[in-house]
Amino acid sequence: MVTATAPGKIILFGEHAVVYGQPALAVPVSQLRATATITASEDSDCWIEARNLSHRYRLTEARADDVLAATIERVRPLILERWIQQGRQPRLAPFVVTIDSTIPIASGLGSGAAVSTAMVRALMAYFDETPSEAEVSELVFESEKLLHGTPSGIDNTVIAYEQPVYFIKGQPPEPFTVAQPFHLLIADTGLPSPTKITVGDVRAAWQTEPARYDALFLTIGEIANTARAQIEHGEPEALGPLMKRNHTLLQKLSVSCAELDTLVEAALRAGALGAKLSGGGRGGNMLALVTPETQKRVQAALEQAGAKRVISTVIGE
Ligand code: PMV
To answer: What does DSSP say about strands 47-50 and 95-101: parallel, antiparallel, or unpaired?
Structure first.
């Protein structure tokens, strides 16, 4: 039996604009994890068991758009190729992949990429292979395309590398240092929102008004660059105003919603230094920047304003 895990993630700055070549910052959230366990199959078939979805099925019976099956189908040839190079018999014994995850689905926390990452690592380890982070990221990116359509690649990157990353589409990821840890609350609207839909809507809007949208993306990219500098210089409190500005720009992209705006306003009223939606938007999660003094008050305000769950996390610890 082999088990591997992968973290959830949040996007600090730059979601959506990152799809259009602007920089974005993302960090892993270790409290949230997806776990994949591989065991030997008791019959001649490979099986997938998604525990959080209470679903068990044969690999051969998976639907064409099944992301878990697609991930397995991409890892298998890679293992076989390596085995051939090592002079081993290219035949893999049937296995069962069991998935557990504490990351909510379709809520901007990287659930899909984390499940795929855990699966790639577990499968490779089960068959005595160790992939590099870049290989894992690349394989998971292919699964992300099935889930998201035109992903930037930020989710698979931050999750496979499990460290804070400054990300520009098509370029090698740049890990960045958090000079002084800072405290975020991650509050869930409880509304699932598939990223594929918001990304598709933004694309349609951009096609109608390219100049307006390009200008919004550029401003978001500038915010991400400023934020990186402030995080690296140990001035996290300066992120507050940047989060507010980034949220306003995301509203202009039409990816916020009443529930997210309500949580952002409640957090700011209760003393958060900044707040913004995180991820695809129109549901999912938002972030609030707090201090040890304001944390409890902001958390209570978020819960009162309708947050279904609030996670407290320290970035850079
Ligand atoms: O998976 P989510 O909901 O965190 O969204 C990823 C961020 C987007 O910029 C909206 C899409 C992308 O591929 O970068």
So the answer is: parallel
Distance (angstroms) between ligand 1 centre and the Cα of 206 equals: 16
Q: Best of 67, 107, 152 to mutate for ligand 1, by most ligand atoms within 8 A of CB?
A: 152
Q: Is the CB of 9 under 6 A from ligand 1?
A: no
How far does the centroid of ligand 1 lie from the alpha carbon of residue 247, in Å?
A: 15
Expressed in angstroms and rounded, the spacing between residue 71 Cα and the centre of ligand 1 is 19
Task: Report the alpha-carbon angle 172-18-160, nearest 5.
Answer: 45
Confidence bin at 103 (pLDDT 50/70/90)? very high
- Write the CA distances from 208 to 87, 185, 197, 203, 220, integer angstroms: 55, 36, 17, 9, 19
Q: If DSSP codes are grouped into helix, strand and coil, which group holds residue 103?
A: coil
152 lines ligand 1 (CB under 6 A): yes
Residue tagged active-site, from 155, 188, 214, 261: 155
Band (pLDDT 50/70/90 cuts) for residue 272 is very high
Q: State the DSSP H helix or E strand holding residue 82, giving kind and residue range, or none if neither.
A: helix 67-85
- Phi-psi domain of 124 (left: phi exceeds 0; alpha: psi -120 through 50; beta: other): alpha
* Amino acid (one-letter) located at 147: L
Reported pTM: 0.93
Q: Does position 54 have pLDDT exceeding 90, yes or no? A: no
Q: What is the pLDDT of residues 110-156, one digit of tens each?
A: 999 999 999 999 999 999 999 999 999 999 999 999 887 789 999 99
Give the CA angle between residues 215, 137, 82 to the nearest 5°.
150
